[in-house]
Design goal:
By secondary structure, the chain is α/β, with parallel strands linked by helices. The strands form two sheets. A seven-stranded parallel beta sheet has the order 3-2-1-4-5-6-7, with helices on both faces. Helix 2 packs across helix 14 and helix 4 packs parallel to helix 5.
Length: 464
């Protein structure tokens, strides 16, 4: 019996020992497999990371090559167009020499606001002849009432919902139809890049094309734009509106070029007196108002320029009221019950209702406040593609024409400074020393004189 118990005990011990040995063996095997798997996994991750980097590098080279190819194609296309244009007569094939006033077709691009269209409207008001408009600006109803029929709206490729190819045909046909209807002697385009469809249709009908090209371009855009470097590829003449905040260097082009004084739509004698301006806007003339027209621009990651301006104005005292411009062109603005909202166009007519303004650094707003002797703080948009608003605002500040604010601290300090009547008077004095904004009249006179001389020359040739 004892022997039986000892035998069972021995078997149990041996079994337990075998189990322990098996456990240790498989445990070692497990750790070995895990180690190999981790090593393989690390290697796979490195390989995947290396493969991803190679793919990204390949994609970058592909994009660079594609862009280089696109740039070369654009250059070739412009050169071909320019070569073809040299062989074409730069006179209208639709108009015989006559004593009638010259007809003009104004075409504006789809910018970030109404700047392009407003400049052309200013020129059209000085134009002594028939004219019509084609615009890609969806905000054109702010300028043209429903009673006016001399404007046609063409949605941009983005807003039309059409492919670029279909939109190109649509735009070409729209321009062609208007040219056949109006029979213009000249087409005047305002925009950062001349649409090639416009170039082609003007060439087809032999109508001279003039490019009104706002100055103050960013350096990188000047270097990357073939049209900027070679305006003769797309235009027969070049207009460069002056800018109180940018001193443009002399330009030697192979086509006639006119650098004018600044172009504005509203003159000083068209301003409402303060009482009338306040009455029209529904404001109490006994209060002090600061106009804020920024379009929701952000000056840093945490604070919007509008919010900063509103708080700074309210901190000036109970009599100081921030007035926010409601614009259909911009996104949602600050939603506060303690802020007065207005909407009017052109807003410049009402500047005398305000002690000073806080504006963005676009061309039109800047030229208006300087020419109309309206003290202002300029908050430039640093993220524009072409327009160098930072340069314009900084140069304007250096000349004492405006105050430049590029962050919330500078904006607050500038508002506090302009609350002082002496600071505003100093800015007004500097603004009054600037030349008058006669660019629109200069442009219209120069173009009409050029057309008149051209018609007289044609008439002489035909008579002889």
């Amino acid at each position: 019996m004892q022997l039986y118990i000892l035998l069972n005990t021995f078997i149990l011990v041996v079994t337990l020992f075998s189990v322990v040995l098996s456990f240790l063996y498989f445990r070692r095997k497990y750790h070995s497999l895990v180690s190999k798997y981790n090593a393989f996994s690390d290697l796979s991750k490195k390989q995947l990371s290396l493969l991803e980097k190679q793919q990204n590098l390949l994609e970058k080279h592909r994009k660079d090559a594609s862009r280089h190819e696109w740039i070369q194609e654009e250059k070739l296309s412009l050169i071909i167009r320019h070569t073809r244009r040299l062989s074409l007569p730069r006179i209208s094939l639709l108009t015989k020499p006559s004593e009638t006033s010259p007809r003009a077709l104004f075409v504006s691009s789809n910018g970030g606001g109404l700047g392009h269209l407003t400049r052309l409207l200013a020129i059209s008001r000085a134009w002594q002849g028939e004219y019509s408009f084609i615009t890609l600006s969806e905000a054109y109803p702010l300028i043209f009432t429903g009673e006016q029929t001399n404007i046609k709206y063409c949605p941009s490729p983005v807003h039309s919902g059409l492919s670029r190819r279909l939109w190109s045909k649509f735009f070409y046909n729209l321009i062609a139809t208007e040219i056949e209807s109006l029979r213009p002697d000249i087409v005047i385009f305002d925009g950062a890049e001349v649409y090639l469809e416009l170039v082609d249709v003007c060439d087809s009908y032999g109508v001279p094309l003039v490019w009104s090209r706002r100055g103050c371009w960013k350096t990188e855009r000047q270097e990357s734009s073939e049209q900027f470097k070679h305006p003769e590829y797309v235009a027969d003449a070049l207009l460069i509106p002056g800018d109180y905040g940018c001193d443009e260097p002399e330009i030697n082009n192979s086509i006639p070029t006119l650098s004018t004084a600044p172009i504005t739509l509203v003159s000083r004698d068209a301003l409402y007196e303060r009482a009338e301006a306040c009455q029209k806007l529904g404001l109490d003339a006994d209060k002090r108002y600061v106009l804020i027209q920024l379009g929701g621009g952000v000056i840093n990651d945490k604070t919007s320029a509008e919010e900063t301006a509103i708080e700074a104005v309210k901190n000036l005292g109970a009599d100081w009221i921030p007035v926010l411009v409601v614009s259909p062109l911009k996104g949602k603005s600050v939603d506060r019950e303690d802020v007065v909202r207005i909407s009017a166009y052109p807003l410049a007519h009402y500047y005398r209702a305000f002690e000073f303004s806080v504006i963005a650094g676009g061309y039109n707003s800047f030229q208006e406040v300087v020419s109309l002797n309206a003290p202002a703080i300029v908050v430039p948009n640093e993220h524009t593609v072409t327009d160098d608003q930072v340069c314009r605002a900084q140069v304007g500040d250096e000349k004492g024409l405006v105050l430049c604010a590029q962050d919330s601290e500078q904006l607050t300090a500038a508002i506090q400074k302009l609350a002082d009547p002496a600071a505003r008077a100093e800015i007004i004095q500097n603004q009054q020393a600037q030349p008058d904004p006669t660019g629109a009249q200069e442009s219209a006179s120069w173009l009409m004189e050029s057309l008149t001389n051209q018609r007289l020359l044609i008439k002489k040739i035909i008579t002889e």
